[in-house]
Design a protein that fits this description.
By secondary structure, the protein is mainly β. It is built from no helices and eleven strands.
């Protein structure tokens, strides 16, 4: 399983980014929970959002509720993290996870 995240970058506070995750090896996601995690410099990795296989259950960390949304497209084998109203404290390396597999992350930097 080779998970690949994309969509990170440099953005001003209050801006938006959309992260994407797919499997370069074609590993099928559709029956599995997917999650986004992040790790800021000097901090532990934390879960940001998760989504059930049919998108019926979504969990968001309190710190991102009302600003971030997670979605998935099982036909395209993709999972997304829409991040709005970004804050400097959202700066981190963002990882996609499925089962026990992780991507290498995509860096999000929010300037104040």
């Amino acid at each position: 399983v080779h998970l690949v995240e994309s969509g990170g970058g440099l953005v001003q506070s209050g801006g938006s980014l959309r992260l994407s995750c797919t499997s370069a090896s074609g590993f099928p996601f559709r029956s599995l929970w997917m999650g986004w995690f992040r790790q800021a410099l000097g901090k532990e990795r934390e879960q940001v959002a998760s989504i059930s296989p049919e998108s019926t259950t979504i969990d968001l960390a309190d710190s991102v509720k009302g600003r971030f949304t997670i979605s998935r497209d099982n036909d395209k084998n993709m999972v997304y993290l829409q991040m709005n109203s970004l804050k400097p404290e959202d700066t981190a390396l963002y990882y996609c996870r499925v089962a026990n597999y992780w991507g290498k992350g995509t860096l999000v930097t929010v300037l104040s």
